[in-house]
Amino acid sequence: MECDADIIIVGGGLNGCTAALALAQIGQDVILIDAMPKEILADPAFDGRGYALALTSKNMLNVLGLWKEVAEDSCPILDIKVSDGRAGEGAAPWFVHFDHTEIEEGPMGYMLEDRFLRQALLQAIDGNPAIRHLDKTKVIDQEITAGMASVILADGKVLRSKLLIGCDGRQSQVAKRAGIKRSGWDYNQTSLVCAISHELPHKNTAHQFFMPSGPLAILPLNDNKSSIVWTETTARAAEISAMNDADYMACLRPCFGDFLGEISLQGGRYSYPLNLTLADRFVDNRLALVGDAAHGVHPLAGQGLNLGLRDIAALVEVLATAARRGEDIGALDVLSRFQQWRRFDTSSSVASTDIINKLFSNDNSTIRIMRDLGMGLINSTPFARRGLMRQAAGLTGDLPKLLQGKMI
Ligand SMILES: Cc1cc2nc3c(=O)[nH]c(=O)nc-3n(C[C@H](O)[C@H](O)[C@H](O)COP(=O)(O)OP(=O)(O)OC[C@H]3O[C@@H](n4cnc5c(N)ncnc54)[C@H](O)[C@@H]3O)c2cc1C
């Protein structure tokens, strides 16, 4: 039986779309399937959601021809300030300040609104003859045989390929159907996400205040706006979500302090219950998991999408090499090279975000003194500061070519 495409991707979120473009660039033809309509995915309205993209993620988007489309809308993160805080008390005197001039490569990362990234991705996919994008299309089953990976759609149609990539998010059914188990737990925390405008300039500085109930991130956007990721216990977040805008802002203001002057809400308000989830394996015969389908981390370090882009960069490089050598791109030994490349980085990111969240999301006075002293120590040690900055920029480890800004 003939294949309908070299590769089928289930899930056309940010990772699925980026994977489709990167795979098309190495000569694979791709079917990209998503249950959502394109019009919703590409809604140009400002909705307040944004991502902190590491410098290496920007390099990758550049090679894929996407950065030029979003560069003007992105906001460089020049400094990052991390501190302990309590609502109404402002930041503790101990903090860590990461200043981008201490590393040679430039800004550690860029803030980019979700809508700009999604639009650029969908436009590039529309114009790419190697990608068939099926929106409003739900995958309900899959079958893997020795020579083929098939998906069954809700309308009963069957599509066949050499390789199936699961980009279907944290509840990945692609993984579940393949018998891939997951480890993880619920954080009993929910992130409240919105954007604010403010009176005073943010000076391209990202702030992370660790409050007892969870971290509060204030991330710079263009036009004197900032993206807010405000984590509370799930019960408290539900109470705050139910409030009107004025009461919502009255709860946010004391967490914030007055360093940005008067603040006001812009766009919508969103909430994301948080959990940790890690697939026990990222590959199977003719199957690979990428992005949140493989690993869902706490958003405190803004690493989720960056990890997904790192998966894509590694997978595409492994597949390009295999294709050049005449190997079967769906063979388990080929896909295992991708898993081997990504497993350590992923597991260590999952573990570090989990430990930081547990260490900081509490009000135990002994732990507070220890972590404040730890932050003071890091802040006074240039070597430690630079190491952490290079990590935030995504510059550490064995980097695939796309992340280095090189074509494969
Ligand atoms: C509050 C918050 C803040 C964050 N901030 C950052 C940040 O600053 N920087 C960063 O790097 N990351 C950040 N992240 C993480 C980032 O948002 C995610 O890692 C990323 O969006 C995951 O994308 P994905 O494509 O893997 O999955 P998803 O976005 O979940 O996409 C999955 C897609 O699969 C489709 N799908 C599922 N099942 C089927 C099916 N059966 N058939 C067809 N289609 C299907 C869905 O419709 C969906 O479009 C944040 C996350 C949260 C919650």
Describe the structure in your own words:
It is built from twelve helices and 19 strands. The chain is an alpha+beta fold and 408 residues long. It has a single domain, classed as FAD/NAD(P)-binding domain, CATH 3.50.50.60. A hairpin with a 4-residue loop joins β9 and β10. The radius of gyration is 21 Å and the shape is globular. Bound molecules: flavin-adenine dinucleotide (FAD).
DSSP strand content? 25-35%
CATH-derived topology: FAD/NAD(P)-binding domain
> Terminal Cα separation, in Å?
31 Å
Compute the number of strand runs: 19
CATH class type: Alpha Beta
Largest sheet: 8 strands, mixed
Give the radius of gyration. 21 Å
DSSP helical segment count: 12
Number of domains: 1
Quaternary state of this entry equals single chain
| Small molecules held by this entry | flavin-adenine dinucleotide
> Percent of residues in helical segments?
25-40%
CATH superfamily placement: FAD/NAD(P)-binding domain
Shape: globular
The poorly predicted ranges are none
| Class of secondary structure makeup | alpha+beta
Question: Concise description?
Answer:
The chain is of the alpha+beta class. Helices cover 35% and strands 32% of the residues. The two termini are 31 Å apart.
Could you outline the blueprint of secondary structure elements for this entry?
Blueprint: E1 5-10, H1 14-25, E2 30-33, H2 38-41, E3 50-54, H3 55-63, H4 67-70, E4 75-77, E5 79-86, E6 90-99, E7 109-113, H5 114-126, E8 131-134, E9 139-144, E10 149-153, E11 158-166, H6 173-177, E12 182-198, E13 205-211, E14 214-221, E15 225-233, H7 234-241, H8 245-256, E16 263-279, E17 283-284, E18 287-289, E19 295-296, H9 304-324, H10 332-360, H11 365-379, H12 382-392
Parallel strand pairs: 1-2, 1-11, 2-8, 5-13, 11-18
Antiparallel strand pairs: 3-7, 4-7, 5-6, 9-10, 10-11, 12-15, 12-16, 13-14, 14-15, 16-19, 17-18
Helix pairs in contact: 1-5, 1-9, 9-10
